[in-house]
Specification:
The chain is of the alpha/beta class. It folds into two domains: about 100 residues, Enolase-like, domain 1; about 200 residues, TIM Barrel (Alpha-Beta Barrel). It is about 30% helix and about 25% strand. It has an eight-stranded parallel β-sheet with strand order 5-6-7-8-9-10-11-12. A three-stranded antiparallel β-sheet has the order 1-2-3. It has a three-stranded antiparallel β-sheet with strand order 4-14-13, with no helix packed on it.
């Protein structure tokens, strides 16, 4: 329990994007972000969550879920008891990361040290090519053709043309694709020869999560990565025989605590680890950077899609993410 009663403050804000983003819900020009802030009179901790529409979340639902925890926080809720008090999602992520942050400041240790990770090293992130027409995606890929790894957001019909256009524009880059649950089993089979020809190294969530039994035992030439099909450790059993990798996202799993547990258990089972995230500020990425220390693929370029970031934000040097400034999150008090 905290040395003094903790108070939880919840705020939300729309962060403008540097360029409009095409999603399944239309064109978006900003991203909604929720900030959870803990204060005990001496120390302060922050965490950020971004509502996931895919899991029925909205800015209002995330704020309401956090507001409902204010009494429990004041009464002594902590990081351990939080895991049972809230379901996985963006609200628990924001509060979990705030607990890690305030605990680090109280104990004068970094979160990395608290988690037994040692020093946080710089990492190479993918560069995301957002879903668009083949020509537009090729134009973006050409601008980033020297990046080591490009991740293509796809959407169904026309995806082969999109991948081919990007491959032509960036012949040397490694490619992974995120189908975002948009393919049918027939499309997966039809697209595969072209994807192999384009040297695609990984396919994220080709089929809807509730229809992925069709993947069992297919023995495809390109490994598959579970995203929406895996939220927490409890989902790992259902991945067997379907996926070779799992994408761990803090908003999806519900915080750094569950993300670290999921990464450890997934590795134990022989799954490859990808650490991803949507569009967020550096405050949302800093905790994920800790999980990503042991990942094979890192997809944490979200802050680069914003028109501006938080102060003391992460520093990106090309495709390399440098560790967070302790003032941002996770540093000792």
């Amino acid at each position: 329990m905290a040395p003094h009663p903790q108070r939880l403050t919840v705020t939300s804000r729309a962060w403008p994007l540097v360029r409009p983003l095409i999603t399944a819900h239309g064109v978006e020009t900003s991203v909604d972000v929720v900030l959870a802030e803990l204060f005990d009179g001496d120390s302060r901790g922050r965490g950020e969550g971004v509502p996931l529409r895919r899991f029925g979340e909205s800015i209002d639902s995330v704020v309401a879920a956090l507001d409902a925890m204010k009494g429990a926080v004041f009464s002594g809720l902590n990081r351990d008891t939080l895991q049972q008090a809230m379901p996985p999602g963006a609200a628990r992520n924001a509060l979990d990361c705030a607990f890690w942050d305030i605990d680090a400041k109280r104990t004068y240790r970094s979160v990395a040290e608290m988690a037994g990770l040692g020093a946080v090293a710089p990492l190479v992130t993918v560069c995301t090519i957002a879903f668009d027409t083949p020509d537009k995606m090729a134009e973006m890929a050409a601008a980033h053709r020297t990046r080591p790894l490009l991740r293509l957001e796809l959407g169904g019909d026309g995806d082969v043309e999109r991948v081919r256009a990007v491959r032509e524009a960036a012949p040397a880059a490694r490619l992974i694709v995120d189908a975002r649950e948009s393919w049918t089993e027939a499309q997966l089979g039809d697209f595969m020869p072209a994807l192999v020809d384009c040297r695609v190294g990984l396919i994220e969530q080709p089929l809807p999560a509730d229809a992925d039994d069709a993947l069992a035992g297919l023995g495809l030439p390109i490994p598959l990565c579970a995203d929406e099909a895996c939220r927490t450790v409890a989902d790992l059993d259902r991945l067997e025989g379907k996926y070779a990798a799992v994408n761990i996202k803090l908003d999806k799993v519900g915080g750094l605590t569950e993300a670290l547990a999921l990464a450890a258990e997934a590795k134990r089972r022989g799954l490859r680890i990808m650490v991803g995230g949507g569009v967020s500020t550096s405050l949302g990425v800093a905790p994920a950077l800790l999980v990503a220390q042991g990942a094979e693929i890192v997809d944490l370029d979200g802050p680069l899609r914003l028109a501006f970031d938080r102060g003391a934000g992460l520093r990106y040097e090309g495709s390399t993410i440098c560790p967070a400034d302790p003032k941002l999150w996770g540093g000792p008090g």
